[in-house]
Amino acid sequence: MNPLIIVSAVCVFDDGGRLLTVRKRGTDKFMNPGGKPEAGETAAETASRELEEEVGIVLAPGKLELLGIWLADAANEDATLIEATVFTAPGVWSAHPSAEIAEIRWLDLAAELPDDLAPLLTAHVLPALSGSPDQGRAKFPQL
């Protein structure tokens, strides 16, 4: 059985409707800003904290909107799964790389997608944002 990492992430858009993606130092895959919870944090609190730490966007956890919860292969850990709670951040934002973020990239969802995106993003987040069918969304009774 593969190890499981719990994470929270956020979909952020700029004024052109492009999706913010980040690449962490020492990695080659782009993903949504986010990360692992600290002790006692809810998924929304984790997402809010990581958003501020990684790209300088301050948004209260209560302002985030749940997009979905999915299982996917981890982008940066071999033979590892992630359980990701993904939110959207309402509004239009600008961002700058901070903390462990080496690079940010705004992804034009109408253009051809690059091949360096994290599995969670390609298999679940992008289809959910486009309104595509479920694409294997994990169902959790607590929602």
Features:
two-stranded antiparallel ribbon; Nucleoside Triphosphate Pyrophosphohydrolase; 143 residues
Can you describe this structure in just a few lines?
The protein is α+β, with helices and mostly antiparallel strands and 143 residues long. It has helices spanning 43-55, 119-130; strands at residues 4-11, 19-24, 34-35, 65-73, 81-88, 101-107. It starts with a strand and ends in a 13-residue tail after the last helix.
List the helices and strands and how they pair.
Layout: E1 4-11, E2 19-24, E3 34-35, H1 43-55, E4 65-73, E5 81-88, E6 101-107, H2 119-130
Parallel strand pairs: 1-5
Antiparallel strand pairs: 1-3, 2-6, 4-5
